[in-house]
Amino acid sequence: MQVASTTTHVLYLHGFRSSPMSMKAQTMAQWIGQDHPRVHWWCPQLPPSPQAAMALVLQGTADWPWAHTAVIGSSLGGFYAQCFAAVTGCRAVLLNPAVEPARDLAQHVGRHQAWHDPLQSFYFEPVFVTQLAELQTQLQAPQPETLAIVAKGDEVLSWEEMVSHLPHARIKLLEGSDHALSDFDAHRSDILDFLHLA
Asked: In this structure, what DSSP letter does residue 96 have?
């Protein structure tokens, strides 16, 4: 699918235990709302089931013009963003994306507190690991236009693995930073230039 020159719809996918209240999601929403008010923004709360998460975003974007759509994903949301882009052909921005989520989250089966609301919790079931492995098979096809921001200082994921799993991507490799990309503001121009927002 040919990617159009302008993006009118943006989907943001948060990471494991995270939410639309994440710093990066809130910052992106602010940037777009201030400078590109015509762009449609959607950052849903993703269910813990990977299968349900992908069904939610595909259903919620079914009437979007995918040639004018972009997806942004952080950590596990970065993996989902790759899957979404593989299905839709839209351009993608990946922020320290999970590239082996089935392997990495297999050790996290059990109950977890939500990062932004400790009063809420969810159970990460063993079948969710299987679902992640199944989703990963979708990533064998050529990937659409992709920008990946990868931090060598990521304390959760291996930057070497991220880079090696994204040979098709334009990679901005950071010498320091961290998994949360606490210096997210510094990447504003790179992200917005890549998105070609309307």
From this structure: S
Quote the pLDDT of residue 1.
43
Evaluate whether 157 touches 103 at the Cβ level (below 8 Å): no
User: What tokens does 160 get?
Assistant: 């070497």
pLDDT in tens, 114-149: 666 676 777 888 999 999 999 998 787 667 899 999
H helix intervals, the chain: 23-35, 50-60, 76-88, 101-105, 126-136, 159-165, 188-195
Q: Is 41 helix (H, G, I), strand (E, B) or coil?
A: strand
Cβ-based neighbours of 8, under 8 Å, separated by 6 or more: 38, 39, 40, 65, 68, 69, 198
Q: Other CB atoms closer than 10 Å to residue 152's CB: what's the count?
A: 15
Tens of pLDDT along 79-119? Answer: 999 999 999 999 999 999 999 999 999 998 888 776 666 76
For the record, the structure tokens of 26 come out as 């809130």
Tokens 């990460």 belong to which residue?
124
Q: Is the pLDDT of residue 164 over 60?
A: yes
| DSSP string of 106-148, one letter each residue | GGG-EEEEETTEEEEEEEE-HHHHHHHHHHHGGGGSPP-SEEE
Domains of the chain: 9-195 (3.40.50.1820)
Closest CA to 91 of 129, 152, 50, 147: 147
Q: How high is the pLDDT of residue 65?
A: 96
